[in-house]
Design goal:
Helix content: under 10%
Radius of gyration: 16 Å
Strand content: 15-25%
Order of helices and strands: EEHEEEEEEHEE
Distance between the termini: 36 Å
């Protein structure tokens, strides 16, 4: 099985207990409010940003969604290029008003975000290599990059809301330190079409994303 971006299908194991029974289409996830009407800025960049972070320092991200706030501690020491890119895009307001376009509720338990187009094919115009893959696992609270194959990281990332068995192919670059219940409430709402993989039943939008050195 794999979790990928750029239009490549995600394979879900047929076996396995679903984390939550999907609710009927268009059911609002608990705690979610209507998203603002503002749109992503759609910026594109010609190349990966120059390194500006200190890999020895601590960095944190705050995802302010229409369903609540999720706080993330970033792992600059083990994924410096990933954290550097994430901070750069956050500072460009690239993630603001972008949808979380994919929820999986069987086999894998993740919410995928970071694509301004909401199609699973969008990115910032550049790619960068994988990091931190040796022995990588994806327990509850992991934040990792989605990709379309080796060394194709861009802007799409996923949040793990229940332990997920993924191969070590997706750069883990942080973990949730607050708001895990927000993520799990989103998962409780299920997928829009009732399947185990698709758009969340209730639209989930990153209203603002900020990253800063602690």
């Amino acid at each position: 099985m794999g979790l990928v971006a750029a239009g490549v299908a995600l394979a879900i194991a047929a076996a396995g207990r679903a984390f939550a029974v999907p609710l009927p289409p268009h059911t609002e996830a608990p705690g979610c409010m209507a998203a603002s009407d503002e749109k992503p800025n759609g910026k594109q960049f010609q190349s990966e940003p120059a390194m500006t972070i200190d890999p020895a320092a601590a960095y944190a991200t705050k995802l302010q969604t229409n369903c609540g706030t999720i706080d993330i501690a970033l792992d600059a020491a083990h994924a410096p290029r990933t954290v550097n890119s994430f901070q750069f895009l956050s500072g460009q307001q690239y993630f603001d008003h972008t949808p979380c376009h994919r929820l999986t509720t069987q086999g894998l338990f993740v919410l995928q975000c970071g694509d301004p187009t909401g199609t699973g094919t969008g990115g910032p115009g550049y790619q960068f290599p994988d990091e931190n893959l040796a022995g990588a696992t994806y327990p509850t609270g992991t934040v990792a990059m989605a990709n379309a194959g080796p060394n194709t990281n861009g802007s799409q990332f996923f949040l793990v809301y229940s332990d997920s068995k993924l191969p070590p192919n997706y750069t883990p670059f942080g973990h949730i330190t607050g708001g895990l219940s927000v993520l799990q409430n989103i998962a409780t709402g299920g997928v829009k079409d009732g399947s185990p993989d698709g758009a969340p039943a209730s639209p989930v939008v990153l209203e603002s994303v900020t990253t800063a050195r602690n």
